[in-house]
Design brief:
Blueprint lengths: L1 E8 L5 H14 L3 E8 L10 H13 L7 E11 L2 H13 L4 E6 L7 H4 L4 E4 L7 H20 L6
Parallel strand pairs: 1-2, 1-4, 3-4, 3-5
Helix pairs in contact: 1-5, 3-5
Length: about 160
């Protein structure tokens, strides 16, 4: 069984996002074991630099890093790939022996470069900018789509 961990900074603030996330969690149960870990976001204040805030969040994120997991960070400067290529990436990595995957989504200020540098792949969901909260829902839909492609199911047309 494939294990997928979604490491996210901060809670979602909207019910409709939580409902969408729960919808994809339910759909994915047949494909993989999914665990969402919410890392506490650091309060943004004028007395703290962005770098300090990101470093404190990075410390919390690193507590959940697993050396045996293939780590993918969502980053606007990351690789932009079609859904079929994401499915192929999962297939290739599973053939290489990976059964654990971790996606990392930063908070309002993004992620510390310390986190980004400790990931195997930087991935962009789009050339457009999404909120970090909406990115969670979009990512889960794409992961579900990728595993539907791998399994040859009709979801991906």
């Amino acid at each position: 069984m494939v294990n997928l961990k979604l490491l996210v900074v901060g809670k979602t603030k909207y019910k409709w996002l939580d409902e969408g996330i729960r919808h994809y969690l339910k759909l994915m149960r047949k494909h993989l074991e999914l665990n969402i870990i919410i890392v506490k976001d650091e309060k943004i204040t004028s007395s703290k630099s962005s770098e300090l805030i990101l470093d404190k969040e990075a410390e919390r994120i690193f507590k959940y890093f697993d050396k045996n997991s293939f780590r993918i960070v969502l980053d606007s400067a990351g690789k932009n790939i079609p859904s079929e290529s994401l499915a192929q990436l999962f297939s290739d990595k599973m053939n290489e022996g990976y059964s654990d995957f971790t996606f990392i989504i930063g908070g309002a200020l993004g992620l510390s470069q310390k986190v980004v540098k400790n990931c195997h792949l930087k991935l962009s969901l789009s050339s457009m900018t999404f909120t970090h909260q909406l990115s969670r829902l979009v990512l889960l839909e794409q992961v579900y789509r990728a595993f539907s492609i791998i399994k040859g199911e009709k979801y991906h047309k």
